[in-house]
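Dear Dr. H.,

I hope your travels went smoothly. While you were away I took the liberty of generating a structure for the chain from your last submission, since the lab meeting agenda had it listed for discussion. I wanted you to have the full record in hand beforehand rather than looking at slides cold. The sequence, exactly as received, is reproduced here:
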Amino acid sequence: MKKIALIAAFALAVPVAAETIRMRDGSYHAGEVVSSDDEVVRIRFSATGLELDLKWEQLAPGEAKRIRARAAVEKAARFKIEGEVVYTKNDTIEGVVQEETPDKLRIKTAKGMRDVMKTIVLKRETTQINALSVYTPDELYASKSSQYDLATTAGNFDLGDLCLAISLWEKAKEHFTKSLELDPTWKARIEPRLAKAESGIREEAAAALLKEAEALFKEDKLEEGLDKLKEVLDRYPGTSAASKAAELSEKGSDDLGALKADQKKETDAKRAKAYYDEMNSLVRKVASDKKLTFTDIKGYIEKVMTGEILDKMAEREKCDRTQLEADWKSRDLPDWKQASYGEGSWMLEPDTLAIEATTNLDDIRNKQKNQQLIADLKKQAGEQRKLVDEWWAKQTTTVKINWLTAYAAEKTMITKPVEHQSCTKCNAKGVLGGTNLCLRCLGTGKDRVVFYK
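The corresponding predicted structure, in token form, is as follows:
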């Protein structure tokens, strides 16, 4: 490291590209900041053409702060590109629009291409976005690497820094190693970065092994999973993956059964969500299909729907269909979901009228007095019960979806005993105005509610 006294001795000659840099001793020098890190700043002095590494404290405090702030902005700018933020009803997508038609946007993101229908777009903004929202680290490296002079120490060093920032550990190691070969005097600056790259390589490899172990656990291959955890611990001690592997290994060694139970709970929860989502999708599909009769839809739900859902789940998970069905039947879920038949509850309820099912003494006397009224109401309700298809055809899609969801739950899921709520029109009386049949509940006074999982 050169002494500051030597720097102060340089004559001042200011080319257009240079800037004036102030030292702690009060002297001013023309030069150019070549690179910087947490410890040193490399400056090329215009008077001599020499490049020297200076510690930050050798610069005037305000000057060090200025150069550091600029370096931070320049570093952040490496990852900024012009793109769009697209807001939809259910998502916010950040990326670059590759193709636009009157109906659709095709947006490139780091996870791949996204096709977005314009009908669901709420807002679009053109702005500076993080390049890693659009490009994978490998793609970003491919686009940026040509900007660095890889025949020089500084070029390899700076590209290595970029690789560290985007977690391309192997590439970072490659460029720092090349930088050190070109100029061994950079050893003090390069070695900490090489160590960071090596650490990243180990962390990445350990995480990959841990992921393999977790995949084995999901397949109920517990012993093989534990062996893989041991490999993580043996090969990559000290990594964050090893820390997690130690926890999993201890738990699995103490009680394989408990580990399997925990894994099953997690799997059951994920499969339940997938099942519910698929069930809702199919219910909506058949509810809106005007070609299907009510009888057709009920038969589909009772005999076909569950098998169709499990087929799709098995294909998506790439697992054995028979085993999936067995696991699904033995599912253990903590939470119950709720569905109501609403105004169609009477289809699943006995034809007993609310006014004839009472045990109140006064109501019993009234019942005896109003036998003819009750008979007339039962006859009217009975006639209405025969018009199921006509009733179904008049209902909105929402009413149909609610009814079919409750029916699918009651016929195909694990359920509690059915519960009832009061009819929202007659308030559980079954009649309106004392003598008119409530056509919403057909006199039952009930809304049928199903709790399922």
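Two observations you may find useful: Residues 80-135 form a domain with the SH3 type barrels. fold (CATH 2.30.30). The radius of gyration is 36 Å.

With kind regards,
E. W.
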